[in-house]
Amino acid sequence: LGSDYKSPSGVNFYAKYNEKKDPSYFFKNVKSIFKKDNLTLVNFEGTLTKRNTRADKTFAFKGNPSYLKILQQGNVDAVSFANCRDYGEGSYNDTIAVFKKNKMPFASYGKVSVYKTKGKKIGMIAVNGLDGVSSSERFINSGIKKLKKKKADLIVVSMHAGIEKTSVINDVQKTIAHYAIKKGANLVLGHHPHTLQGIEKYKGAYIVYSLANFCFGGNTNPADKDTMIFQQTFTVKDGKLQEDNVTNILPCKISSAYEEGYNNYQPILAEGEQKEKIFERLSEYSQKAQEAGDRLAQKNVVQDKE
Questions:
Q1: pLDDT in tens, 78-97
Q2: Secondary structure, 3-state, 61-94
């Protein structure tokens, strides 16, 4: 939620926010879907800060702290946040302060979160695979221990990893995701590639390797505007998670003006031919993801035997 100051000032996220003067504009087309969910979790890509000392990197994003209203009015319930220090360490701390002040549940590195709904506890962990596999595994291991002490009924791990702008899943993603599930995660959600990647089922749990962009001010007109909402239903009975694992994919476009060829930062459900194309992409990518995951799992079995 925000832009890089180097982006075109007339059409960037700041310009759209100033034009609409209405935080509910951005999630207008999907908020009814999020409202029906018991938990809507997003990855927060960027910072909420008033600092002006930009990190020396290709892209650096920030938004005004007031932009948190976009999530609140869009029926977003919680965020993962383990990737952004675009305006220095202070901007990371500023963003967390905004979450805390506004009672927005968040998970970030060693900070786990529990979201209570329907009398159940959903535990959340967020890690950054770009810091290395061992770092992520350490936070996952300690995070799951913390959440089990808090008696979480299910655990969701958000993973910032992979290679940007590719559908190919790398070994870092696979290794972290498999580790998370072996340790007790019930769902792994990936981001960072900024494009869709496949979905794998591993030991009865799903790994969504990349959800792609959604409401994304980082690019005023990305060539790839495909995205999705991934839904999963979990059933807890007598304190035990059942093996129903009902999933649903809602193909979306990141812009309701995608046919006009620009990003208006207002995601919308895809229809007709666009919807089918996204399903086709995900089907192809998921088959490859499953095959790659199976190979890694088999390799690890052999190594364990040795």
A1: 999 998 887 788 999 999 99
A2: CEECHHHHHHHHHCCCCEEECCCCCECEHHHHHH
